[in-house]
Input
Amino acid sequence: MVNFCKKLLPRQQEALPLQPVVLTRDQHGISRKQISENALKVLYRLHKSGFEAYLVGGGVRDLLLGRQPKDFDIATSATPDQVKQLFSNCRLVGRRFRLAHILFGRDVIEVATFRGHHHEVNTNKNLSDQSSEGMLLRDNVYGTIEEDAERRDFTVNALYYNIADFSVVGFANGLADLEARRLVLIGDPETRYREDPVRMIRAVRFAAKLGLTISPETEAPITTLAPLLRDIPPARLFEETLKLLLAGQGLATYRLLQHYDLFAPLFPEAAEVMGQGSDYYNQFIELALANTDQRLAEGLRVTPAFLYAALLWGPVETRTQQFMHEGGLNFYDASRLANDEVLSRQVKSVAIPRRFSTVVRDIWQLQDRLTKRSGKRPLRLLEHPKFRAGYDFLLLRAKLDPELEELAQWWTDFQEANPVERQPQSRRAPNPRARARDDDAPKSRRRPRRRPRKKKEA
Output
């Protein structure tokens, strides 16, 4: 990032928290060529219609850091209804925060009206509402750009690119904090976390993703307030965990979640198992996250189901053993019961959709099926739609469990063998779960087929 803060920002401007700092067109490196064509269309139409229009937040932040933004969000003085009148391809979404989505095929440009101070409005529950814990349940109060900046979470997100003159406007020392790679929450941290506890895991995500250091005052209340995440709807936390762990910095993010006691409210079953003294499952999760980060860096496909299977593997194995020893169940029944129980408890914290939980079950169940290698079973398993995910899961387990190395290597060799070699290989394969067979025992003979009787001639 260009070292613009020290050169361009007078010290008297930095001293006032919400005083805007403006970088003119020639004082920053953002070009309209870096902004998506659809986002520019929305900005131009809002501006030509007499409304203020800014590219805002993460898009501006990432462009200043020399990164390509994933999304382009827009803030405007137009209300959601006014935005809808301007765009026929617009739909209004959200109850907690009323937003306008401008649809260009699969590309969605999110447009938000400047937010104001909810405490300065009357008690109309359709505009603003808070829970007894201070969490915002509804926040559709509109205001000015200065009020909108104050309502944003972190100073590095209080950045606006003005389409009117192509300047960048920063509030709350956001430009200076971005230059210093410092993450600072706007306002009183405890109050802001109580308003929206998800801000705590957003702090961790930004720190890991952008290489920022969380300021002491911003991190101080996190450990104490971490249990507030249990009040967040599980469906919302599912979306947040995807952003946390599937953005390419999953391992670093996971370690920060553990450091600030934020992992347990998200994955209580896994946290309970890891709290029993053994570090095995923690190592396994770190291994899975490192593997996922590497695949993302190489541009390879990843599925959230694989990661959730790894995160919950500890509870599944633990509960399976408990059902076998305490309930007297066989392995098959115990493992199926453990799968159901762990997933049913997990969805109360993070709602894993069925399209992913089904794959999670397949990966777990394949771990037992992969041990059975006799006869035609290996050939049939290769045709299983989730075989590759189950095999990759086995490879991760084998890195921590020497007893699984032979099994993992056998499946690797079996896949690499040509079809002719696979037949005798599968016949020779041992079945570790099969009972020992006595080779001297007499083999049962097949009963000969009885010939039909001839009908007697009359």
